[in-house]
Amino acid sequence: MQGAPGGGVGPGPSPVDRWMLLVFSFILAAALGQMNFTGDQVLRVLAKNEKQLSVLRDLEGLKPQKVDFWRNPARPSLPVDMRVPFSELKDIKAYLESHGLAYSIMIKDIQVLLDEEREAMAKSRRLERSTSSFSYSSYHTLEEIYSWIDNFVTEYSDIVSKIRIGHSFENRSILVLKFSTGGSQRRAIWIDTGIHSREWITHATGIWTAKKIVSEYGKDSTLTNILNAMDIFMEIVTNPDGFAFTHSMNRLWRKNKSTRPGVFCIGVDLNRNWKSGFGGNGSNDNPCSETYRGPSPQSEPEVAAIVDFITAHGNIKALISIHSYSQMIMYPYGHSLEPVPNQKELYNLAKDAVQALYEVHGIEYIYGSISTTL
User: pTM of the entire structure?
Assistant: First the structure.
């Protein structure tokens, strides 16, 4: 979900009228069960140097947190995007201005976009029901995606099967699609989407990719050669509890839904729960943080299920994790400055991929191994 940079706050309702609107929105949200983000804005900040980056990073350590970073402070050359709740806007803007940090308003009111998104989903759902079809250009709930998976593997049983690799914290099934033309324990590629539950476009990308694989096998020579030699495993909903929660209560929920005795805040950032680089740069030990790493490596059942499956398989040669937002291709390791042994190979591969993406879509991606934004 992105907005156009360079927006601004123009003339609008009086403070009293705006406050009444905000109160009404919260009452309506409570009645519907959905958390409301009326008045929340997304600010884009460009730090000029490391000192200004440090000022932005100080916002991450606030308890309770006052901002939600969509693109974390990484380096001066990269913009920082953050959602600021309506109640904190005045203070945060004053904080930025007092430190000489220029900002622009990317999204003036997040709730407006969320309402448009929900309306589009409802319209698509009505159309799907009337035509008994599945739209590959719309967002879907967990139940709809799992139903699609069942129908998908039935329709393309000659090439796709479904594997349950574990259960989530709230005991939802963790499902993986296996694309294979035969054989056992063949070399394989792993692809996962939706590890951060609010990144709905990644689930949609996974579904679209799955459909593309079955429709292009035997037609596209590159894909056909890959599937004739390797298997592809695809986990479309890597964080089922969090994903269900984004539909039922909080559209912007990022973590899983695990709880622990004595800890008030809920959830762990599953992408910070891996053993590799655990507790390093880009993660947080504050359970209330959006990037909370968890109490220990692989403490979360969603992460442990992936690790156990990949380890038991023993022949997975590539792992691809699809995220939003940002236009980046990252390769190992985002938590370390030390290059991996095949750094040159990965760099060249990312460079070629970025060029190919630009030629098709005209969008420029940045690439490299150092990032704390995902």
Answer: 0.88
